[in-house]
Design a protein that fits this description.
This protein has two helices and six strands. Strands 1, 2, 3, 4, 5 and 6 form a six-stranded mixed sheet that branches.
């Protein structure tokens, strides 16, 4: 189960990113983290920006509501999202809705 912290109008959770995947998609859960495959390379912050855009699209929130709180240079990242509840994260994770939001 994904560990989600909820604080007022903000949630935070850990994401495990796999960059340079064939497509951007949610790939389930991994040791308490949401596992996400991204087609962006981990170069010059491109994977981080792709992660923010992907999550904003999946969660139907503005891009500015998604922030990477820690882990900018690693595969494990703590992400904060404003304006949603923990149930929305769980719903997206459980559906594993395959979406390609690569922007290409």
């Amino acid at each position: 189960m994904i560990e989600i912290r909820e604080d007022h109008d903000r949630v935070s959770f850990v994401v495990r990113v796999q960059p340079r995947a064939s497509r951007s998609e949610i790939d389930g859960e991994w040791q308490g983290a949401l596992r996400i495959r991204l087609n962006a390379p981990p170069v010059e912050g491109r994977a981080n920006e792709a992660l923010r855009r992907f999550l904003a699209c999946c969660l139907n929130v503005p891009l500015g509501a998604v922030k990477i709180a820690s882990g900018q240079k690693g595969r494990l990242k703590r992400v904060e999202v404003e304006g949603i509840r923990a149930e929305q994260i769980r719903a997206v994770a459980s559906s594993k809705a395959r979406k390609d939001h690569s922007g290409q």
